[in-house]
Design brief:
Oligomer: single chain
Helix content: 25-40%
Shape: elongated
Distance between the termini: 28 Å
Number of helices: 8
Number of strands: 17
Radius of gyration: 23 Å
Strand order of the largest sheet: 1-2-6-3-7-16
Strand content: 15-25%
CATH superfamily of the largest domain: Zn peptidases
CATH class of the largest domain: Alpha Beta
Structural class: alpha/beta
CATH architecture of the largest domain: 3-Layer(aba) Sandwich
Length: 388
């Protein structure tokens, strides 16, 4: 493990402070206020953007250094719901260290990566070694049904002429060990809401054809059975997942007149968003029953391969971990797709095996190593740009 320089702010202490903010369900302002003050105190020019299209959640933009271009780090400060607090061994937001790991909701996705990048920047600024410009763009709505924060932030930077050479998105890209994978693309994601209408009545006296739930389940089985594709050279197969089914009925002796379901589809580059919508619509049209269809595009998807930045990040990762990461596109859809309108994007962060799970945790050593990787990457990016 490379030797760590004496930190301005210890990255583990910063990570613990961040995860102790219960930033889910719209409770995002306190962690933004804290980080705003912390970054301002270390030489960053910090702004909270009023992105009305992103809803009530703010977007934080901070910049330090001089020159054109440079490196932008992007991520989010909201976290998934912790579920039942009693299921956690030490509390979902305690941020305690047990057996060499920091346990808390959001440490993997992605407060650990945010702490690592902020710590890396603070060290370079304190030592007078920042030879160029770095930016930080953070949203608070990534876990929402339709996240728009980073998209709004990217549009703001474009309007203000704030250009960057590359963006590093801090998602947890490594399946098992730090250093396995750099992500260079992600599938698009659409969430469909399908409502089925029927006629209520007694189960023993009513025609099955009027049962809204039966018709809905038949349609869902049809959609699930009809595979979109088998993947391509850059992406795995598109996926179709039923994520909820509900009825208004709360009585055993009544057939529901209305039933609804949500279906999540993650689609690869074989399809455009319009193709996926048409495919679902066609399945609805040729099914028995009366339906209403709504949908939200969560992520448009992206693929890029900024060779220079990939090589520099691979070198930084290999130096700290001894592993040469491969480039891939596996995993969940990513809000990083909102940033490709601004500049090329690559993703690298902590291990993702425990993200969104009860007792989510990250190794303390991995967080320290990630800070070193980010610092080496910042140096390499800015120096190779000729910003000396």
């Amino acid at each position: 493990m490379p030797k760590r320089e004496t930190p301005v702010t210890d990255v583990i202490q910063l990570a613990q402070k961040l995860v102790r903010f219960q930033s889910f369900g719209g409770q995002i302002e306190p962690v933004f206020d804290y980080l705003h003050a912390a970054l301002s105190g270390h030489g960053f020019n910090v702004r909270l953007l009023d992105c009305t299209e992103a809803g009530p959640s703010p977007v934080l933009y901070a910049a330090a250094g001089e020159g054109k271009g440079g490196l932008l780090f992007a991520g989010h400060l909201d976290v998934a719901s912790p579920g039942t607090e009693a299921d956690w061994k030490n509390g979902a937001f305690a941020g305690e260290i047990k057996n060499g790991s920091l346990c808390a909701r959001g440490i993997c996705e992605m407060k650990g990566a945010v702490a690592a990048f902020v710590g890396a920047c603070e060290q370079l600024l304190s030592a007078g070694e920042l030879r160029g410009r770095v930016g930080i763009l953070l949203s608070g709505d990534e876990e929402n049904s339709v996240p728009r924060g980073l998209e709004c932030g990217a549009k703001y930077l474009l309007q203000k002429g704030e250009s960057y050479d590359c963006c590093l998105y801090g998602s947890p890209t490594n399946p098992k060990k730090l250093g396995e994978e750099i992500k260079v693309g992600s599938r698009g994601e659409i969430v469909f809401e399908i409502t089925s209408f029927g006629t209520s009545g007694h189960p023993g006296c009513h025609s099955a054809q009027g049962n809204s739930l039966h018709n809905l389940l038949d349609l869902l089985c049809k959609i699930k059975a009809d595979a979109l594709d088998t993947g391509n050279e850059k992406f795995g197969p598109s996926t179709v997942q039923v994520i909820s089914v509900e009825t208004e009925n709360r009585e055993d002796g009544v057939i529901p007149s209305r039933a609804s379901a949500k279906v999540n589809i993650c689609f690869n580059t074989n399809h455009r968003m319009e193709d996926v919508v048409s495919w679902v619509q066609k399945n609805v049209i040729f099914s028995s029953g009366q339906f209403e269809l709504k949908y939200d595009l969560r992520h448009p998807g992206y693929y890029n391969y900024p060779e220079r930045e990939i090589k520099l990040l691979q070198q930084a990762v290999e130096h700290s971990t001894g592993m040469l990461p491969h480039c891939g596109t596996a995993g969940a859809a990513s809000s990083a797709s909102a940033l490709v309108q601004l500049c090329p994007v690559i993703e690298f962060g902590l291990v993702n095996a425990l993200m969104h799970q009860v007792n989510e945790s990250a190794k303390v050593e991995d967080i320290y190593l990630l800070e070193i990787i980010y610092k080496d990457f910042i140096r390499a990016c800015l120096n190779s740009n000729g910003q000396n």
